Amino acid sequence: MILVPQDVLTKAGVETLKESKHVGENLYDAPVFLRPKSTGCVTITSGSVWDSAVIEANDPNKIKTLVQGARIAPEIAQTKPLADN
User: Could you read off the pLDDT of 6-42 as tens digits, one per residue?
Assistant: First the structure.
């Protein structure tokens, strides 16, 4: 599983699923790496579910690649037959 903090996507100018007009109820987009070059870690910072976790990608290109995937996902969702769902 790859986790990308929403603020990273927002700073990169990528719409999140909540904001996206191109992703409907029947379609969920989640760019993932099929062949990751490194492993990172997720650290829980407290016992509260409301506190953010610390996400370390360990590869600067990983975030860039995920942002690129998140940017093209709405374009893919608009293609036939996906746009019909």
Answer: 677 677 776 665 555 555 554 556 677 777 777 888 8
Containing H/E element for 43? Answer: strand 41-43
CB atoms within 10 A of CB 71: 15
> 0.85 exceeded by the pTM?
no
Residue 39 gets which letter from DSSP? -
**4 and 63 in contact (C-beta within 8 Å)?**
yes
Q: How far is Cα of residue 34 from the mean position of the Cα atoms in its chain?
A: 14
Contact 27, 82 (CB under 8 A): yes
Domain boundaries, the chain: 6-84
